[in-house]
Design a protein that fits this description.
Layout (H helix, E strand, L loop, with lengths): L1 H6 L3 H9 L7 H23 L1
Length: about 50
């Protein structure tokens, strides 16, 4: 549920991907990886400012 809220991907869609009922579009894993890296960079910058 948290991952769904965080990424904006509906819970049902994530469940279908996990169960193998559907396959995510090719760009989705790259998009999620990009989002997570971006958040790490932002978090690191914020920590450097403290």
């Amino acid at each position: 549920m948290e991952f769904s809220e965080h990424t904006g991907i509906p819970v049902r869609t994530l469940e279908d991907w996990e169960a193998g009922r559907r396959t995510p579009p090719e760009y989705i894993p790259r998009l999620i990886a990009y989002q997570l890296k971006d958040e790490e960079l932002i978090k690191g910058r914020e920590e450097d400012l403290l």
